[in-house]
Amino acid sequence: MEVVNAIGRRKAAVARVYVSEGTGKIMINKRDLKQYFPSSILQYIVRQPLAKLDIEEKYDIKINLYGGGFKGQSEAARLAIARALVKINPEDKATLRAEGFITRDSRSVERKKPGRPKARKRFQFSKR
Q1: How many CA atoms lie within 13 A of 91 on its CB side?
Q2: What is the CATH number that goes with domain 4-99?
Q3: In terms of CB atoms within 10 Å, which of 38, 53, 78, 120 comes out highest?
Q4: What does DSSP say about strands 59-66 and 26-28: parallel, antiparallel, or unpaired?
Q5: Beta strands in the chain (DSSP E)
């Protein structure tokens, strides 16, 4: 099997994933998963599609991440991994979609509007 690549986005984060057959090693920006995401919750998010299909030790994954924060990056990586797994085996698509790993979460920060302190918050109104 040659290398399969896919892209995933979430908020401002972009993940490019390269999946090849191997022993289950996940490298992010040339660092190990545990080193890049010290939080076990974020590690779990990245591994979710592999765990769902029970193929955690079957593939080596190399991820290039940039932009966004920890949470956005982990979810972008999850989407990219799910997309790559569907490229490898299209029958897995229904299983991954049922868990919501194929859907791109398009929510992002709303822009700040002029004359307001934040996007929707207003300054205190004074009648007189």
Answers
A1: 1
A2: 3.30.230.10
A3: 78
A4: parallel
A5: 4-10, 13-21, 26-28, 31-32, 59-66
Which tens digits make up the pLDDT trace of 1-17? 789 999 999 999 999 99
Provide the whole-model pTM. 0.91
CA distance 74 to 64: 11
pLDDT band at 69 (very low <50, low <70, confident <90, very high): very high
All structural domains of the chain with their residue ranges: 4-99
Note whether 107 and 58 are within 8 A (CB): no
CB 88 within 8 A of CB 19: yes
C-alpha–C-alpha distance, residues 49 and 81, integer Å: 7
Question: What is the rounded CA–CA span in Å between residue 12 and residue 25?
Answer: 26
Q: What is the mean pLDDT of residues 52-79?
A: 94
Helices (H), 3-91: 33-36, 40-53, 70-88
Give me the pLDDT at residue 108, please.
94
Residue in the block written with tokens 């920890």: 70
Of 108, 106, 105, 51, the closest CA to residue 81 belongs to 51
